[in-house]
Records
---
Amino acid sequence: MVGRGKEDLPEITQLGNQGTKYSFEYDPGVLETFENNHPTRDYFVKFNTPEFTTLCPITGQPDFATVYISYIPDVKMVESKSLKLYLFSFRNHGDFHEDAMNIIVNDLVELMDPRYIEVWGKFTPRGGISIDPYVNYGKPGTKYEKMAEQRLLYHDMYPETITNR
Amino acid sequence: MVGRGKEDLPEITQLGNQGTKYSFEYDPGVLETFENNHPTRDYFVKFNTPEFTTLCPITGQPDFATVYISYIPDVKMVESKSLKLYLFSFRNHGDFHEDAMNIIVNDLVELMDPRYIEVWGKFTPRGGISIDPYVNYGKPGTKYEKMAEQRLLYHDMYPETITNR
Amino acid sequence: MVGRGKEDLPEITQLGNQGTKYSFEYDPGVLETFENNHPTRDYFVKFNTPEFTTLCPITGQPDFATVYISYIPDVKMVESKSLKLYLFSFRNHGDFHEDAMNIIVNDLVELMDPRYIEVWGKFTPRGGISIDPYVNYGKPGTKYEKMAEQRLLYHDMYPETITNR
Amino acid sequence: MVGRGKEDLPEITQLGNQGTKYSFEYDPGVLETFENNHPTRDYFVKFNTPEFTTLCPITGQPDFATVYISYIPDVKMVESKSLKLYLFSFRNHGDFHEDAMNIIVNDLVELMDPRYIEVWGKFTPRGGISIDPYVNYGKPGTKYEKMAEQRLLYHDMYPETITNR
Amino acid sequence: MVGRGKEDLPEITQLGNQGTKYSFEYDPGVLETFENNHPTRDYFVKFNTPEFTTLCPITGQPDFATVYISYIPDVKMVESKSLKLYLFSFRNHGDFHEDAMNIIVNDLVELMDPRYIEVWGKFTPRGGISIDPYVNYGKPGTKYEKMAEQRLLYHDMYPETITNR
Amino acid sequence: MVGRGKEDLPEITQLGNQGTKYSFEYDPGVLETFENNHPTRDYFVKFNTPEFTTLCPITGQPDFATVYISYIPDVKMVESKSLKLYLFSFRNHGDFHEDAMNIIVNDLVELMDPRYIEVWGKFTPRGGISIDPYVNYGKPGTKYEKMAEQRLLYHDMYPETITNR
Amino acid sequence: MVGRGKEDLPEITQLGNQGTKYSFEYDPGVLETFENNHPTRDYFVKFNTPEFTTLCPITGQPDFATVYISYIPDVKMVESKSLKLYLFSFRNHGDFHEDAMNIIVNDLVELMDPRYIEVWGKFTPRGGISIDPYVNYGKPGTKYEKMAEQRLLYHDMYPETITNR
Amino acid sequence: MVGRGKEDLPEITQLGNQGTKYSFEYDPGVLETFENNHPTRDYFVKFNTPEFTTLCPITGQPDFATVYISYIPDVKMVESKSLKLYLFSFRNHGDFHEDAMNIIVNDLVELMDPRYIEVWGKFTPRGGISIDPYVNYGKPGTKYEKMAEQRLLYHDMYPETITNR
Amino acid sequence: MVGRGKEDLPEITQLGNQGTKYSFEYDPGVLETFENNHPTRDYFVKFNTPEFTTLCPITGQPDFATVYISYIPDVKMVESKSLKLYLFSFRNHGDFHEDAMNIIVNDLVELMDPRYIEVWGKFTPRGGISIDPYVNYGKPGTKYEKMAEQRLLYHDMYPETITNR
Amino acid sequence: MVGRGKEDLPEITQLGNQGTKYSFEYDPGVLETFENNHPTRDYFVKFNTPEFTTLCPITGQPDFATVYISYIPDVKMVESKSLKLYLFSFRNHGDFHEDAMNIIVNDLVELMDPRYIEVWGKFTPRGGISIDPYVNYGKPGTKYEKMAEQRLLYHDMYPETITNR
Ligand SMILES: [Ca+2]
Ligand SMILES: [Ca+2]
Ligand SMILES: [Ca+2]
Ligand SMILES: [Ca+2]
Ligand SMILES: [Ca+2]
Ligand SMILES: [Ca+2]
Ligand SMILES: [Ca+2]
Ligand SMILES: [Ca+2]
Ligand SMILES: [Ca+2]
Ligand SMILES: [Ca+2]
Ligand SMILES: [Ca+2]
Ligand SMILES: [Ca+2]
Ligand SMILES: [Ca+2]
Ligand SMILES: [Ca+2]
Ligand SMILES: [Ca+2]
Ligand SMILES: [Ca+2]
């Protein structure tokens, strides 16, 4: 039998839940996982999250980004609705763009202990300049650590065309 | 003489068949193959299938994806009309996005025993997040197994721009 | 002498102000105006604001839109930094998409008494559907009232292509 | 006071509801409305629904379309989650493309009695040809009836470029 | 009861027919119609046909075009599979681009007696120049005749960007 | 009988001619016509010519443009290969952009006596500025003269985005 | 004889001039004209100038815009190199976006006395908002005055998609 | 002296030939070559051929593709007009997409004995699925054989977005 | 505790400062840094700066570019508002495009002593040609020096399409 | 002191020169160089030249291409205005596309003795086929020779989409 149903996923509490609470405080505790059904295989899962917003720690003004999160699961996988709530918790929170992307990597590594993960934030401009931090991680002492190094080596050799419009 | 005609392909029953039946039950049994005429050569065949739809196993709501399937044939090749019927059989069926892509790889490996295969699903967003699983496979113990590892290593270093519009 | 300097604009308090405060409460009171230097001419000013976010009044989940505001000034013109603060004040506030766009028109009419104004919000999808309300207004009893009617008549006859990606 | 909350909308039963049921039978009865808060104003609301799918009544094969629905409300407005459920109910249902778009107009006119409405379906190709029906309606005996005629007169004078890829 | 099934459409012989014959001779006789179920309403149906090919009557070389056909039905509607066969019949046939588009209009008027129809062919370049004929028609003595005149008056005021690549 | 063959077009000497001579002198005399087979109908023919080049009369440097030519034929129609030779004859010739577009209109009016014609040149930039002249013409004393006036009135209200890249 | 050479244009001093001086002071005096050779015809000339920059009068920070200038000449036409020098003279100059576009219209009307002119500036964002003023003018008491009014009435009904990236 | 003229190319019989005959039978014999003038250098030549059409061997329906052919010449190079005639000869011929691309490689290898060659066909969809075969070849026993293997290893890791529209 | 506030960043003087002074003299002294909070990790930060302008040292005419700056920080990181002021200081300054990009690399290496940095300038055309210099640097004697060499080796193998429009 | 002025560049005679002469004869002698100020560093300079035109040596008809030239300088660098004059000298000259690109490489190697250079010409189609030659070169006996080989190995694995429109 392929596939899995609701009854197989008691640990998933947010997906399909009517009473979802959105926390306005930065809160990695909302993240939930489910089990990887294909652990003998290395494969990628990517989340496209174009609705990320936070506040500038110096000026208090809102910042917006599209954040791309891509990982190779080991035993645990992050559930997407809980990931949404986690990202929401940056909404009224202040951080430098570079720090925010590092924190997301740290939290997801802590949560899932993935084989490999990378996070790329592409922010909208302030004063004519936009900032795009890219952070990655491979499990130390494994081939995935080398993978992280290799992907950083060839990262973004074709910067997308930016016109600020 | 180049090319082949209807009479050379008795094993193809769906292509050009007026009475096609669409199964609403997940059914890998509808898949059909024909013989590879160029087995001494390594080459790629890609299917672009932007009309894939399934159901969320938790909420029952419909999910939509474009699925890209690419493989190097060995002896057998999947016939495209039967592939269409197979993908149709997910229509009223529920699975996590990550599981569905793994299952398609498993079924096509079982069917064709290809040298190499990869499947990339790009789903539409729910709650502002979209999920794109990528799964690949190379025949164990061959150079294609290394090929799979190498392609995973450099997978998707340029995530496409996603705006949810 | 063309142009105008800081000293000509004492009523502008937000632009260039280091101590900007961002209100998390819906607050039309932050809006500021400056005088139209070309009142004998009918001309358009458009604001492109792709960083609009609010909350769903029913589910509390965040909503995102690009809002296009276009108007023909009469005596007063809205200053763009104060407009930014005003739009920010919807950040933690809940409204139906259709209501939010009507409210923005009402507030800007109240503020500037423009000859003509229109507001078009283009939201990101929820559950596969996105909503784009368009509201316009022409000063009652003037030719601009007819202008509003005429522009509504021919509004959006070429809907942009939407794929949710 | 601007905006409205959950308590003001008892007639909305689907939005935010955990136990949503998706009907596989064509069912206009799932449609729900809420009251227009700005009835003195003519304004447009557009729904972009790129996840519409139905079945061919002759061959049984799946059809896919992006459907654009745009209307000027009178007293009632259609709630978007219920619209989603309604469109879902075409999933296992068969109709000619031209008929499906006419039916959607008929059902939404029956539901909301809008001042004006238009529906444009853009289907994916079969055999190298795609079909895009466009249907509109203005309340008979009003200026909106003329509006419908006028919009049809100038409909789609710039067909989008189609390459089937 | 909405929709219609196979049994309601005995006059449709090509759609879903396994034994389709493609005629290499120009043949308007393959065109088939079905009845318009919504004759009290004026609405548009558009066919996008990017796979049109014919031969140059002078040089014999192949020509390729995307042809856009858009019409308001009266009593009869052209069935899309038969339209495909009709367009196929130009495959080994020679005509000037301008003549071919006029012929398609003539044949479809003869077939369906539509209220309004227009055909726009966009050909690929020869020697650095491409040709795009646009032909329309409104039923003589009706408002649709004026419609045709009006649409021609405002035809293609924004020529698409062509680079020949 | 539809279509026409080589034997019906003795006046066409350039199309399909192996010994084509390209004149480097501005030469409207190379233009050839053939007869309009559908003179009772008003219809448009457009030529897309992205390979137009001339010389600056002041600096001698080369200029490049894409030229769009669109007309409603009366009795005569311009043959496209001869049009190509005519446009080629500007290659080593000097003119202001604005004059060149007027001259093309004048020559084609002289040649074909069309009901309506328009020519739009879109040049590449020099020193950061590009120039796009648009010239049109309707047969004096006919409704096409009014058509020209009307099309000029609404010309290019949506200038294409230009970045010089 | 078509075209004109250097000797016919003694009033043009900047085009092809090696010793061009760029004025850093706002200076409409650098503008030069040449005579319209086709004064009996109404036609459009458009300048695309994506390299416009100025300073904010309040903060001193640089602003950037693409400015589209489009006009129907009467007797005089603006020479493009002198237009470039004129636009350059805004480089170290401060003005509100709305004022700058009005000033350009005023200066070009003063210079050329055109039948019709319009100027559309599309600026890059500051703080997530961009401003696009559009100003037009028709010679008072002529049909071009009505043309200006008509073009304003239907101005920019399809705002371009802005993402700030 | 650089370049070469007609007199240096007696073996080229199709290019510039008025009496070109288009064969409707698959015919690799129409292919012609000329000599590589730069044989000491490895370099690529690519042909973009978006006007390829053939017939389905099972259903007889027309298929369309854009075919990209790219090679490193050795002594002989294929002449482009003869390549056009060769590709034309598939027009009324039936083959599976995968076979057609292999046959083109075989024929061009036979003709030119190139160091390296690859052919990528991108077909339009049938029933919602499109097929893109990619075949390459390097001269056996040379470094180009390894080149072929290496290019296959990294082939198409970024599938283009396909929407079927 | 994640994130950092104003009080943690006393060395940042420009960000959020009302009295920003823009220097018209080339001035690397305006650059400011803050400390890297994640020094044990290699990660990329990219700045997109589409609003770069300078003067041609020979002709004095303005030049415009989009400059992409991407680096792996070591101990210090450049603050983006100070980077903006630094880039502004090229505004009235003259340099060859190739020199300007080298100078930016030199100044940022001097400022931050980064592990790796690269700068790519994409200028608008003059006389039909645009110039895009790309300069990179890796800390000598480290693996980042090899990284620079490797990235140069594979730099820009897919030049973006340039049309000068 | 950074940058360099006119006085430092006596060898540059074309840039900023009012009396530029355009040679209609193929003439590599017009090329000029200036000295590389950063010779200790390997870096790329790219020229985008979308305004290249030549004549077909067989038919005499004009050909058009966008040519991309990219190189790593050693001691000398080509000045862009002289490059423009050089490319202009192909205007009335005939060559096969493949030869023209090889000749440009040869001439620039002869002129600058660069470490590495590559030239990619992308021509417009004739008879539905376009040709894109790519030629590169690394200084023999250096690591740049291997670089050339490596870049050829991975050249153009993602052919751009070509539609001939
Ligand atoms: Ca969404
Ligand atoms: Ca998008
Ligand atoms: Ca969605
Ligand atoms: Ca989209
Ligand atoms: Ca097609
Ligand atoms: Ca061509
Ligand atoms: Ca194009
Ligand atoms: Ca330029
Ligand atoms: Ca552009
Ligand atoms: Ca900004
Ligand atoms: Ca953009
Ligand atoms: Ca299809
Ligand atoms: Ca497409
Ligand atoms: Ca240029
Ligand atoms: Ca471009
Ligand atoms: Ca194209």
---
Amino acid sequence: MEKNSFNMISLPENSPHKQETVCIFGAGDFGRSLGYKMLQCGYSIVFGSRKTKTSSLIPKGAEVLHHEEAAQKADIIIVAIQRQHYNFLTKLTEVLHGKVLVDVSNNLKINQYPESNAEYLAELVPGAKIVKAFNTVSAWALQSGTLDASRQVFVCGDDNKAKQRVMDIVRTLGLTPVDQGSLLAAKEIENYPLQLFPMWKFPIYLSIGLSAFFFIYSVIRDVIYPYVYDKKDVSFFIAVTIPNRVCPIVALILLALVYLPGIIAAILQLHRGTKYSRFPDWLDKWMLCRKQLGLVALAFAFLHVLYTLVIPIRYYVRWRLNGYVISQIKANRTDPFNNTNGWISDSYVALGILGFFLFLLLGITSLPSVSNSVNWREFRFVQSKLGYLTLILCTAHTLVYGGKRFLIPSMYKWYLPAAYMLSLIVPCTVLVIKFVLIFPCIDRPLTQIRQGWERSPKDSKHSCYNDSKSAV
Amino acid sequence: MEKNSFNMISLPENSPHKQETVCIFGAGDFGRSLGYKMLQCGYSIVFGSRKTKTSSLIPKGAEVLHHEEAAQKADIIIVAIQRQHYNFLTKLTEVLHGKVLVDVSNNLKINQYPESNAEYLAELVPGAKIVKAFNTVSAWALQSGTLDASRQVFVCGDDNKAKQRVMDIVRTLGLTPVDQGSLLAAKEIENYPLQLFPMWKFPIYLSIGLSAFFFIYSVIRDVIYPYVYDKKDVSFFIAVTIPNRVCPIVALILLALVYLPGIIAAILQLHRGTKYSRFPDWLDKWMLCRKQLGLVALAFAFLHVLYTLVIPIRYYVRWRLNGYVISQIKANRTDPFNNTNGWISDSYVALGILGFFLFLLLGITSLPSVSNSVNWREFRFVQSKLGYLTLILCTAHTLVYGGKRFLIPSMYKWYLPAAYMLSLIVPCTVLVIKFVLIFPCIDRPLTQIRQGWERSPKDSKHSCYNDSKSAV
Amino acid sequence: MEKNSFNMISLPENSPHKQETVCIFGAGDFGRSLGYKMLQCGYSIVFGSRKTKTSSLIPKGAEVLHHEEAAQKADIIIVAIQRQHYNFLTKLTEVLHGKVLVDVSNNLKINQYPESNAEYLAELVPGAKIVKAFNTVSAWALQSGTLDASRQVFVCGDDNKAKQRVMDIVRTLGLTPVDQGSLLAAKEIENYPLQLFPMWKFPIYLSIGLSAFFFIYSVIRDVIYPYVYDKKDVSFFIAVTIPNRVCPIVALILLALVYLPGIIAAILQLHRGTKYSRFPDWLDKWMLCRKQLGLVALAFAFLHVLYTLVIPIRYYVRWRLNGYVISQIKANRTDPFNNTNGWISDSYVALGILGFFLFLLLGITSLPSVSNSVNWREFRFVQSKLGYLTLILCTAHTLVYGGKRFLIPSMYKWYLPAAYMLSLIVPCTVLVIKFVLIFPCIDRPLTQIRQGWERSPKDSKHSCYNDSKSAV
């Protein structure tokens, strides 16, 4: 929104329109910053404070009065003090009656108090119209005008008119009010600025865990093993070769884990014969972070692509290729072209490219602005159909990469299979079960269940399901 | 919007505020799902049904009454039944008078009925305030809370207060209401969830057609021809080599087709001497899907880039390069560096990189959130100026790639020119006509026409236009 | 928003609902286009004009009357005439009393008049309710329906009801109204369509300047120097080699310049002992365009990646590598593998890949739709923590690339150091100062200052700051 950014600079100079008077309780940093910003935008500001001595910190042009006097001067009172000092407000109940009280407070921890600060305020001053707002904006951002992230101001309140008036102030300050409904939403709004990527935690920890495991696994197989047996020092593999082995593995496993909960849910629904009983908690949480899992997988796939494309630039690779040519010449021999190798090399590369391309498409459609502009049917089509196609292509890419290698005993160093083989377990499981689930005799009851149909207890529960399983 | 996702989980546990009572007609899957969700968010729910026996499917805490009794209990009635059963509502006209009736229905086909379901409902129950909402949300999504795509709920209605109340409910459920104006919009809102990428159909079919044609064309020239004449089996070209020939061709043609309709429109306007007569239907439709055409072209260009960058990793390419070195050594000869080849190879690569880079910029600015934050002038600058620059760079890239090859007779296998030559026809045509159109003596009248000026019939229509044409 | 695009096509055919009558003053291009569009959407249109003769340009179905008569017929009057002709409206003050007057005008230059056109209109017709709207939409877009960029219509006005009515019209036309508050915002709204990437100007000019300097610098060192001394013509370096030297340098410098103003601000705040005095103007502007600086840097980094990845495809590189192999064979010698070189080559590549990956993440989070869905804490985490990590990785990438080369005298052609050395000055400075600033004895007072604390004049200003400086 470049539109608004110049707003911030240009407004101070030309604000001939005088806006209404707003009272701010509390002359702490946030109160002062907000007052400064509002003065710039043409409001008259009166601070309500215990000591009415104007300090140098109070923005120029603002008045400082005792709480009661200040409250009388304005219709809208912004309460910029901490929750633990709210109780003095009970003495002002009369003056505050019918006025709009804006709660801007934040807590230090998520769910610190049983009720939200705004609801607590509403209990203390029952006659006032409480509106929650501004808590998502930082004092620093208000003053400096660098509001890149936090243009959105969540506003909620039970009185619609009061909410509208506060939203008008928000808009005048160059911010975007987002109506969040009744005061019930205050708790979430207060928790919101304390979060640090809550939905991303599980995917990121999982991917770090997987990466660490496969990194150590590959170091043992590819660095320590040759050092122990051949005294060959290939420690520099840690920089590019090993990461390029770990990244595709983690990406493939995470991608498969995006589709696994859907399959578990389908099996649960088939087993229970209804969709109306709740899933276990872990499954619910897993399903809610599928998007994040997929995006982390995409990040690893992207790293894999970059690591792969730089291969021919690496000194080690050039040195090895040169050595190969020189050895051929010294042996006075030219390797003939192997058509099978040509096919394997090219189809493996092609599968990878197509898989990555579809994966990227999935990632783009999960951008908020893109997913908002598609309807439910389109979103399902992309995320489900294209998603499974991506999984199939990436799994095939890994399978063809392996080729017949899994048959060669020398690949099992210290009896450890190559890391890529481990990576195939989850995706192959997911694909096989999914393949079973699209069999008509399983798909039909599942669709019925999802449309709200319930199996009566008399139904022979397992008939069809078992049949098809034995068929596979 | 991670903000809202935790909303879904946390709300059930802490909803001390009691919301109003809402009545739901119809206890089908969608009605029950909506009821379940609303109960979670603190609403009291009463179902209106033919049979008032509480089935196990009805969410716990909801009441089930006969339609009439249920309707009396609430101010807002959600009609979650199918259109063909609406007529029983005429009997309830009296009870429903002045109440808010929310139509949530969807159809099975686009434009199934002459008027929208909501308008039909408004005719049946003239005293009620009809609001269309919730039809874009799926029952499954409501229950499971996995609302990635469909947070947006389009709301329309003729009564503003009724609409606001429904929008408040939408917000409380953690969804985003989007006001679509009067009930007139109901038809579109009902068609919306039935669409599957309507604007993408033409570009995608076109690109599939072009890809198929050029794929077969290249297979004939590059796989079948050497097999027939040299008995050389290069069938593995199908995996990477041929796709990497098809992708840039389709990308270039599609990119040119983005700019062709604008040029046809300009010629039409010049010819007619006015901008106020409608374009033919096909041109209108073509112009409306230019963005999608461009994005499909970008996808093909992206694939071309990936296919090109993996070239040095391919087994075939390494084998051929090794063979070249070995043959040089056997002949005891070192090819001297050819400066012209250096220039051609590097400038061809550089043009491709710059063209792709600008193409990507165009793609990024067409993301909804980015294009919303630029103004009309900026958007025109990017899409028109940068767009033509991209087309010029990509065409030049192809021309330099060809180099002097089009003069070599051996390139015309079976009298077929190389595929890249065919790909140059459309972009070169577009660029030449555009070049003619920016001649001042053509640009001036065109600008006038676009500013609303009309050529009177007496004007000598073709003078300037013809002059410049002969000049070129 | 595909949703709305079909709107434009489908509406004309089925608009049974008759909307209200709207009057348009002025039958120029924009007035006619708007009238045409509104007729399509079901409104009755009456044009107010000096000459009431219906010309062929007036859309079919619209009436043309004298201004006074036309104004009487409608409640909403759209003033589609230029500001300099507004004064005739004073004669109509009586008729226009209480009516909604929509100002759609634009100026030719930014800040052309002291007050906005809408405010001027409000002065001329004091009894009317002035609403500013539609100025961001072009006449051409309204008619052709190709509204890709400009769906957003900024609306402002002092009368809320009048504003709501205009916003309803906007919505009916398939556009998105954006409420900008009171008429105070009219000036910005009028300036908005005249801007051409105002925040991008400085970053783009700066990057062009830097690119030009380093391009010429590199041409002198890498093309002219070998030509003068060795008579070697490597002019083709201009296409790929030199750009691939310039791009990473400019990217790194620009990235460092993103973090420099924050550091200068911190030093200023430490020096002044308060955050309440304004920064110098240039620093404020610099801080506001950091996002744009970063994105331009990302563009250069992206070009660098592409230029690097095509290296092995280039004719020159292949020729040189072949020559190297052939020379080795002729000398009957095989270079042994150098482990240090393996480490340097691979770690340099790995640092670059990780740096670019994080850089891309930063770019994605600065997309409007993504940055709107993160809170202030998350945004700070990404932009500050990840941002510095990116800068560290990219600087390390450049340092390792250089390796020990800066010690070799032959690298200083004509006493000019290699360009990459110059590029390290700014990022290293930034990183060193940042490292000093996170020392606890400096970080603590800085945090206090940023939380609103002020150093009283008696405080020994420099104690801690100086201490730590000498310590470093």
